[in-house]
Structures are given as C-alpha cells and as structure tokens.
Amino acid sequence: MDVDRSQLVMVKTEPFNAETPLDALREPVTPTVRHYVRSNFSLPDHPGTLTIGGAVERTLTLTLDELRAMPATTLTVTLECAGNGRIGLMPLPTGEPWAGNAVGTARWTGVPLHLLLEQAVPRADGVEVFFGGADHGPYKGGPDIAFGRALALDRARDPATQALVAWAMNDAPLPPDHGAPLRLVMPGWYGMASVKWLAKIEVLTTPYEGQFQTKSYQFEWPDRPREAVTTIFPRALITDPAPSDTLPRGPYTVRGKAWSGTGPITAVEVSIDGAGEWLPAHVAPPTGPYAWQEWHFDWAGAEPGRHVFRARATDAAGKCQPDSPAWNRLGYGNNAVQVLAFDVR
Ligand SMILES: Nc1nc2c(c(=O)[nH]1)N[C@H]1C(S)=C(S)[C@@H](COP(=O)(O)O)O[C@H]1N2
Ligand SMILES: [Mo]
C-alpha cells in the first residue's frame, strides 16, 4: 500500500511523526492523509491475524476476514497525542517537539472490544488486558522492545468504554501509518492507548509493567506523585484566523474546534487583547460522544495593528484550561489556553 506523507507537517522522518496541517483542522472529519501520525518505531510487518489469549477460557486466532465478518460499529473519535503542545513547556522536556496540532478526528470502524473478550471468556483471575503492537526496535539505546499497552480488564470488557478493534479509518482500510491492518481505538483517551498494528490481545493476571505503560506516558509532576496519562484534557483550538494572519478591518468570525476526553464541551470563551471579560462563543452540539465540537465567535473587529485572541474550553466534568501549562518531566497534557497573535490592516 502506498504511504502518502506529503500532506502532513513533518516533525520527524524516521520513525515518522507529523502534525495535521491547520487548514485540515477546519474540517469536521480530518482526511486520512492529513491526520497526524505518531509512531515510536518504524513501520512493522503485521502477521495478518489477531490472537486473543492469556488468562482466557478460549484462545482465539482471528483472520482479518473473520474480524470483518463480525458485528461492526463506526465511531467518530478525536485522537490527540499526549505530547501535543510539548514545545510550550519550559524547560523543554525530551520527546518529540510537537507544536499544537498533533490532533485529528476520524471515523473508525471495527469490532467492539467487549465482543471479542466475551468470545475469549476471560478467567476470573484476569486483572488487565494487554494490547501488543507488531512494531518494535531498540529503545533509547537499550534492548529491542515492542509497543504495547494495557487496560484494566473491567474497563476493557465494559461496552460503555466503546473501545474498537478497528479495521477501517474514514471508510477505507487502515493505511500503514495509522496501524494497518488493525488497531485499537480507545475513545476519550490520549492517543497512546490506541495501539496500532494490533497483533495480540492477552488477558493478564498481574499488572503490565512495560516501558510504554509505566515509564512513558506518566505525568511526573515536580510537586506531587506521578500519575498515569489517561483521558484527554479539555482544549479549544483556534483554526481561523491562522497564527500571524492579516485580517481586513471590520467584523470577523473567529472559528475553532474544542474537545475533551471528559466531554462534551459545555462552553468556549474568547478573550480579545486581554481586555475585559471572557466572552462566550457559540458552541455546536456534539456530533458524537467522542468527536470534537465546532465553535465560533462573531467579532466586531478592531483598529489596525497587532491583536491577540485567546480561547478556552470547559467540559461537562467542569474541567477548564489553565492559563499556563502544568510542567511535567516528560511533557504531557499541555492544555494551556492558546494565545494567537494576528494583524488587522
Ligand atoms: N503500535 C503502536 N501503537 C501506537 C503508537 C506506537 O508507537 N506504536 N503510538 C501511539 C501514540 S503515542 C499515539 S498519539 C497514537 C497516534 O495514532 P495515529 O498515528 O493514527 O494518529 O498511536 C498510538 N499507538
Ligand atoms: Mo501520542
């Protein structure tokens, strides 16, 4: 299958990491070739089957055709990398220097995870479910390791989690960069939980302690105990104007997207030139439980010169965005309010 990487904003060529271009973020669903890519290793060969084993009554090995023949669900999901916005942290943590657009929304189609687990029948001593990717390589000068993540068994088997073993993205087979031929999609969680090139599901009787579970994707706060990275924090993104745009004098409609893993978004507010109060923007109703929402603000316009917009989102859980990022050693979860400068001429 061809890999078209020409329409992304490059962060690293190998392994390939790239952001969604801003104009693609104006669309309700991100076109596949413009959806950000985050990979820890080079593109792997996938065995072409999915094995479900470990602490189960029935070990299953399913072919792609068998998976495609099972009842499928389609869910529109906003995926964001936990490292998105890392370059806003000072001092700059190690890790990919993501600006702010390692986010995208796609329609994912696949088998609900709970149906697969029900077929395998987890044993009573199961505590977690491990998801193994086919990708691997030497990691940070150490030995060869593979990408893998685990979820609590109760969460993985709960239909309300709405996790999918997806075989289609935007109504077409998954492309190589997004996990062909199979991936997990864990709605509402930062992207690391959505294991690509999924080859193996294993019910575990003890907690998984691999690199990408207990060392990466941890908030290491300077002033309080570490926490695992899980659900996406609320964020409002301004998609129009673009940074450093020059706008004509007169009224202008500011537009953007807002999302949260504990959504829906209940309010977006805008601040202009830091003056006065935050003003309410119009927020569109959610199109699904895990998809971003569009918002806009009708602005009367301003005098010629440089101006600054800020936008902030509040979600159904009452979570809001901080004015400045909460620094953590590995640079995750920067959902500080965006500050966007532009000119009026
Ligand atoms: N097997 C595997 N799955 C993976 C990764 C990876 O490196 N290997 N990266 C994760 C991270 S950190 C993110 S943000 C998402 C990105 O998904 P995308 O490339 O389809 O946008 O994939 C996740 N799944
Ligand atoms: Mo990520």
CATH homologous superfamily designation of the largest domain: Oxidoreductase, molybdopterin-binding domain
Choose one word for the global shape: globular
How many individual β-strands?
A: 24
Examine the secondary-structure arrangement and name the CATH architecture of the largest domain: Alpha-Beta Complex
What is the number of helices?
A: 4
Name the helicity range. Answer: under 10%
Number of domains: 2
CATH class of the largest domain: Alpha Beta
CATH topology of the largest domain: Sulfite Oxidase, Chain A, domain 2
Query: What is the CA-atom radius of gyration, in angstroms?
Result: 21 Å
Largest sheet: 5 strands, mixed
Main structural class: mainly beta
The neighbouring-strand order within the major sheet is 5-4-13-8-9
Straight-line distance between termini? 47 Å
| Residues in β-strands, percent | 35-45%
What's the rounded overall pLDDT mean?
97
What small molecules does the structure contain? the ligand Nc1nc2c(c(=O)[nH]1)N[C@H]1C(S)=C(S)[C@@H](COP(=O)(O)O)O[C@H]1N2, molybdenum atom
Low-confidence spans? none
Order of helices and strands: EEEEEHEEHEEHEEEEHEEEEEEEEEEE
